Amino acid sequence: MNDAGRLAEDRALVLLRAAGLKPVARNWRGGGGELDLVMTEGDTLVFVEVRARKSLSFGGAAASLSRSKRERLRRAAEAFLLTWPGPVPACRFDAVCFDGDADPAWLKQIDL
Which HAMAP family match (predicted)? Predict the structure, then answer.
């Protein structure tokens, strides 16, 4: 991961923690993919994809969540859940998107 990606994840983590989410894992790899952040919000497990783009060219950060990327996220989350101790909690997928110098966009419950 490059410095810009690490900075975006750090900023996303600050944003999510300020909103009350609690970190569980970071940069977890498995199932053919990587989960940038895994957090809990109450009893819900939240898989967070962090996307950063220098500009809105080509649709920006949110548009970079391609079908193949979403499939890799789904497979990685399934692999992560196989390691979860106890009953599988409710889960959702979120994205935190950074476009240039604009404030981040937190997209809750994205469709995979």
Answer: UPF0102
Tell me the C-alpha to C-alpha distance, in Å, between residue 4 and each of 1, 8, 11, 16, 50.
Answer: 8, 6, 11, 18, 11
CA dihedral 93, 94, 99, 102 (to 10 degrees): 180
| Contacts with 65 (C-beta within 8 Å, 6 or more apart), sequence order | 49, 51, 95, 110
Residue 47 contacts residue 73 (beta carbons within 8 Å): yes
Q: Right CATH number for 3-107 from 3.40.50.300, 3.30.70.270, 3.40.1350.10, 3.40.640.10?
A: 3.40.1350.10
